[in-house]
Amino acid sequence: MDSKYIKFKKTALDDDAMIYQRSKDTITKEEIKNLPFRQRLGYYKDYYLKITLVVIAAAVLIFSVLNTAVFNRSECRLSLCFLDGALPERSEEMDSFFEEQIGLESKNDFMRSDTYALDNYQMDMAYRTRLFAGAIDLIVCPYDLFLEQSEQGLFCDLRELLPEEMCLQLSDLLLENKVAETDDMGETVSYSDPVPMGIDLSGSEFYLEYGGAIEDPVLCAAWNPSNRENSLKAIAYFTGIDPALAETENISTETESRK
Q1: Which of 120, 193, 223, 258 has the least C-beta neighbours within 10 A?
Q2: Burial of 50 (0-12, 13-18, 19+ CB in 10 A)
Q3: CA 74 to CA 69: how far, in whole Å?
Q4: 3-state secondary structure of 197
Q5: Phi, psi at residue 251, to the nearest 5°?
């Protein structure tokens, strides 16, 4: 018989013997109790430490999720976004002002201001991701960027957001643009009628007070602001009109007619 075959069979028999031997080496709970403390500790370390760590990690993760989402849920009540240098120098003071004015209902509620330089690809993608997710309420940007992004349909028609009286008060500041309609290839095929999608902040004392630096700032509302009431209050403060107008629920007659 071939020696290679004999060697293979011998190795297989040895393995079987080892398996058989291991089945006899199982230890009972009673035997574990009778082990010296150090040996018992070593046994648990070898056989149960990894499982214990996994269970603890899973419990911590579940508790963290529940704590954030249920027990101590935090919610953004107003999200401002400043593009391409539009962030005021004293933005933290401005944030504190808005926190007081919008009246955060819970200790876990908050407002936030973010700034993005859109010539950076990653920042541009982060901005658009938050915008499309409805995580941005108001945007302040330079006029040329307003023209570009309003044409892309990223800002809402202010007639659909502002109460009628606010619309009248801000009529001289409203900036219009057309929205481009594109085909499946992304080519522009037509334009909508001009609609108001921006508010001229060039004369805003509020914006200048907190250190607004750009010469031609425009205030816009995201295409789907999540915090409508607080967004209206912020618009009132930015433009210097009576904030009480933001509490009016009646939207403009023109908007009603379009419905």
Answers
A1: 193
A2: exposed
A3: 8
A4: strand
A5: -90, 170
